[in-house]
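User: My collaborator sent over this chain with a note saying "see what the structure looks like." That's all I know about it. Can you take a look?
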Amino acid sequence: MNWVTGVVLALLVASGVMVFVRLARGPSMLDRAVAVDALLAVVVAGLGARAAEARTPYTLPVLLVLAFLGFTGSVASARFIAVRGAEPPERPGGQEPAGAGRPGEPGGPVEPEGAERTERPKRDDGREGTGAGGEETGG
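Assistant: Without extra context I'll predict from the sequence alone. Here is the result:
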């Protein structure tokens, strides 16, 4: 092993330790997901440096599989985190998103043409819906 390979591997070990610390301490799920991705990148770089030093092409399939798994894992975790913490986007000017209102109101869902709108029966207290026993109330 020459001195260049030794320096590269020492730097990769140092970066791996720092990434592992971030993985252990990371206050949020996103920090940990990024740390796992970075740790996998450090492992791939280490394997690549070792393969270059030994001049063996046999580790190339392993590197490709690890890179593919790292990419798909990052995309999957980012999508999971995005869906889990998603809030409805705010529209400029404080407008509500389309379809938020009632049918027929501005900004509400659009009814297809020719569709007949039926009114729901009122309950005893004047609200729409069904009575206490589940039966529809008239009136």
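A starting point for your reply to your collaborator: The helical segments are 3-25, 29-54, 60-84.
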